[in-house]
Amino acid sequence: MGLEDKTIDPAAQKILSKAQKEGVQTVWERKEEMKVCAFGDAGTCCRICWMGPCRINPKAPEEKRGVCGATADTIAARNLARMVAAGTSAHSDHGRHIVHALKLTSEGRMAGYEVRDISKLYRVAGEFGIDTRDREINEIAHELAEKAEEEFGKQEGRLTFLNRAPKKRQKIWHESGVEPRGIDREVVDLLHRTAMGVDHDHVDITLSSMRTSLADGWGGSMLATELSDILLSTPYPIRSKANLGVLEENAVNIIVHGHEPLLSDSIARVVREPEMIEKAKQAGATEGINLSGLCCTGNEVLMRQGYPLAGNHLHQELAIITGAVEAMVIDVQCQMPSLAQVASYYHTHLITTSPQAKFPGVMHIAFEHEKALEIARKIVTLAIENFKNRDKSKVHIPEEKMDLVAGFSHETINYMLGGRFRASYRPLNDAIIWGRIKGVVGIVGCNNPRIPQDSFHVTLAEELIKNDILVVSTGCAAGAFAKAGLLLPEAAEKAGPGLREVCEAVGMPPVLHAGACVDNSRILVACCEMVREGGLGNDISDLPVAGVAPEWMSEKAEAIAHYFVASGVNVFIGVPHPTWGSPGMEKLLYEDLENIFGARFHYEPEPYLMATKIIDLINKKREKLGITEKPVRVLYDMAMRRELPVE
Ligand code: BF8
Ligand code: SF4
Question: What is the pTM of this model?
Answer without folding.
Answer: 0.96
